[in-house]
Input
Amino acid sequence: MTSSSVELRDIHVSFGTLEVLHGVSLSVEQGKTACIIGPSGSGKSTLLRVANRLQEPDSGDILLAGESVARTNPDQLRQRVGMVFQHFNLFPHRTVLDNIVLPLRNVRRISKEEAVEVARARLAEVGLADKAPYRPAALSGGQQQRVAIARALAMDPEVMLFDEATSALDPELVKGVLDLMAGLADRGLTLLVVTHEMGFARKVADKVVFMDQGVIVEEGSPEAIFDDPQSPRLKQFLSQVL
Amino acid sequence: MDQFLDTFLNWEYIWQVFPDLLKTGLLNTLILAGVSAVIGTVLGMVLAIMGLSTKRWLRWPARVYTDIFRGLPAILTILVIGQGLGTVARDIVGTNPYPLGILALSLIASAYIGEIFRAGIQSVEKGQLEASRALGMTYRSAMVLIVIPQGVRRVLPALVNQFIALVKDSSLVYFLGLLASQRELFRIGQDLAANTGNLSPLVAAGFVYLVITVPLTHLVNYIDKRLRVGKKVAEAPDKDLDLVTSGTVRS
Output
């Protein structure tokens, strides 16, 4: 698994006349994990989506492994940056195996045998090898999210983005997905994680970023953010979520 | 009562018209409706994709086309195209109005089918396209492999309903004047009814229409049921076959 650094520079995003990101800069070193926390509507998901250009920024630069990818082919960028969504977004009309095989073949242009081999290996990694022939609807939310992670990993990404990956899960299913994410961090994949799981951020993150109203208010090590917050807004936020 | 029966169920006339209905009428109705259904479906998909485009110069013509062909009475469109184009297209189709009838039916059907497809494709959650794009698939691949198949599945019942309407509307091409061998069900029934002053041949034609359309109606219900059940119960691996038997059906 090769991983790369990712850097967002002075990102501005507007929806109509409403500017939701006011020049945000954020960098994650190769193999490190950054967690973005903050109240809803703070722009953290939008920032994450800029990293693989599902949201095109109005201005600013995106660097992957030190090279600008803000104006290159977005499909090539997305092959290198995997993303996991809050609502899994598995393809309901395809089996679990096909959910991985289909995009793999379509994007990588590899043989069916090769794709099936990769897909089965990735499913085994997330502990769901036996679910290959089922439709996603037959799986629990936690299992579906693990399939979605396997699907993203099958593309062999250098960076993984997680957009509130456990927010839609029943409480007892959250841990399995978080453990899987922590395992990816341990293996040296670069992770950019939008999350409400403060325990996860404290334990796994190398850097925690607090966003509010379209700007980064404070960033630092988990200890600095959680044990010694500086800004009143972060203090207030933490007092409500911890 | 006897007179009533004689007017609508005169077996002599019914036996007289039945061979023609089956040999000529049924075949022609199926050709008219079947070919227009195929062309209408293909054109309809093109219209749906144009209608969903972010580009105004693609969206706009699809919109205008749909408004026109959905807004006009079918009979008007069939006459205008069948006779109007007939003078223009004489070099290609000769004086044969049959292909022009099919063309007119196809154009009308495509306007409705395009709207059906568009609604279906639009109903697919945005996350499906996003997830596909996030995996590196192009817009085109994502639509063709992920979004459109899901959208089309959802509107299969509406699509079959449209095919039923097409079977019935195919009777309208009789206005274009057809050769004896080109007559569809309605025209054959109508010809004998006019000759005899008895409605029984039309009743016979109606019966054959029902033989086509009633099974289609049941196909709609079957697909509808299956789609709903398939969604709720997905415990069986892969093949939907098992889903039908294992689910409880509300109807």
The interface with chain A takes residues 125, 127-128, 130-138, 141, 145-146, 149-150, 153, 231, 234-238 of chain B (CB under 8 Å). Residues 11-52 of chain B form the longest helix (42 residues).
